[in-house]
Every structure is written in structure tokens, then in C-alpha cells.
Amino acid sequence: MMLLALVLTAGAIADDAPTAAERAHDLWVQAARLHVEGNYEAALATYREALALHPTARIHNYMAWSLSELDRYQDAVDHCRAAIRLDPEYPNAYNDLGAYLIELGRPSEAEPWLRRAMGMDGYCCPHFPHYQLGRALLMEGRVEQAVPELQRALAIRPRYRPAIDLLIEIRKRQLEGS
Hints:
Blueprint: H1 2-16, H2 20-36, H3 40-53, H4 57-69, H5 73-86, H6 91-103, H7 107-118, H8 127-139, H9 143-156, H10 161-177
Helix pairs in contact: 2-3, 3-4, 4-5, 4-6, 5-6, 6-7, 6-8, 7-8, 8-9, 9-10
């Protein structure tokens, strides 16, 4: 009888052990905290550990963010693509992929990813892809198309400072040119 009680207790303890997905989530939280603190290398190491346990689109995408803070944009692009492969409905990866392509000087490649992010439900920050597309279009000299995208970003989030600043810069250039 005592042995049966021990076996049942051991089984209950084993059932309470965190799953790989739960442990990966905990590591993601820890890595995100390290990122916010500016400790990007430690964040990357923790994201790698989380990915080894249970890869998710979110972990890949956040890893890309830390990589971008270290100007490792191609690596960030690769992780955004991995995020999209794991979850094609994860909008953050599309926007961030576009943003990193812009940083790499490849605005025309960024445009379809940003447009895809715009059409996705559940995106926490729907103004981001409009702002990023505005940046991409400006890099290509398409000012007449960039301005409405920046205005769309502001229609969604009226005090979004990067879009405001970019519109001010465009206006200054227009005034200097006339």
C-alpha cells in the first residue's frame, strides 16, 4: 500500500513539472526583460535557450528585435522569416521583417511584407506598418505615396512621434525646394 502511495505521489509531482512550452515561455519573459534593460547579448542567449526547448513565432520575432538593437539586421530578417514559417498569421513578424529590410537598404523588398502586416487582424500596433511603408517609399523617392501612409499611421495613432517627425521633415524639404 505504501509503495502504491509513493508511485501515485511521484506521478502527481511529475505531472506538475513545467512542459517545454511553459519553460520556453518563462525564458521568453526573462529574455524580454533583459532586452528592455538593454542587455541584448544576454537576451539573445536566453531566446536561444527558449527556441531550443519550444520554438515559436513570438520567440523568433523577439529575438529578431534584440538582434536589430545590435545592428544585426540580416540575422533579424532570418528570424522574422522563421517566425512567419512557424505562424503565417503572426502580424508582428511581417512588420518587423519590413522594418529590417528598410534598415538593410532594401525598401522595395520591404513593401509586400508591410502591406501584408496591414491586412492582418489582431496586430497590436497597426500604425507601425503604415509608418514603415512611408519610410520605404521615401527611400525610393516616392514622396507623394509616402505622405498618405504616414497620415494613415497618424489616423490610427494620432500622436505617433516618428510619423509626425517624418512628415515635418518632408515639409521642410518641400519648403526648401520651392
